[in-house]
What we know:
Structural class of chain B: mainly beta
CATH topology of chain A: Immunoglobulin-like
Largest sheet of chain A: 6 strands, mixed
Largest interface: A-B, 23 and 26 residues
Shape of chain B: globular
Order of helices and strands of chain A: EEEEEEEEEEE
Strand content of chain A: over 45%
Oligomer: heterodimer
CATH class of chain A: Mainly Beta
Strand content of chain B: over 45%
Amino acid sequence: GESVGLHLPTLSVQEGDNSIINCAYSNSASDYFIWYKQESGKGPQFIIDIRSNMDKRQGQRVTVLLNKTVKHLSLQIAATQPGDSAVYFCAENRNYGGSQGNLIFGKGTKLSVKP
Amino acid sequence: GAVVSQHPSRVICKSGTSVKIECRSLDFQATTMFWYRQFPKKSLMLMATSNEGSKATYEQGVEKDKFLINHASLTLSTLTVTSAHPEDSSFYICSASSTGMADTQYFGPGTRLTVL
């Protein structure tokens, strides 16, 4: 079936290193993807998004890469900080019947940053 | 900008009672609001989508008589868990979006429901 999934459930990095979180999607018709950060006991926080007509988008310390050929999405965090520790979800935005798009979330990757 | 609030943040209730959770967009008008449910260490699962002034669209497997959704204004949606049971205990999260904000959904902080 259609799904959005993640390769790694957990990721532990040293403070200051770069982090890469991966996501695979199966619906080739999806045209919009978002990365969210969720801290314990809180709602998801928007990090960065990308549309399918792009293959790379940069934000502050974050970069999202989209490879439509292999249906792969990644989030790169530069100079990872302890405050980056959280669960990261990729989400696929899919429109149903012309209404506002619905988000299909991946399983999440827990990022732990060691000081 | 694009702040979404939820109230209450935590609620504990007895089995059989009903609980109402509010979701508000504080600085924008939300044409669409979404309700999600999240179990511990799991991903978010969409329960329903609601457009202001219309009936909510429920995802497959979500009982609409159990989870009543009202989207009476462009800044407020409510989720009422009726006759709650312990298996309804979960983290409920809403999100809001606007046609003027493309497809971006902004999430509330979530409500932790514990049914005893």
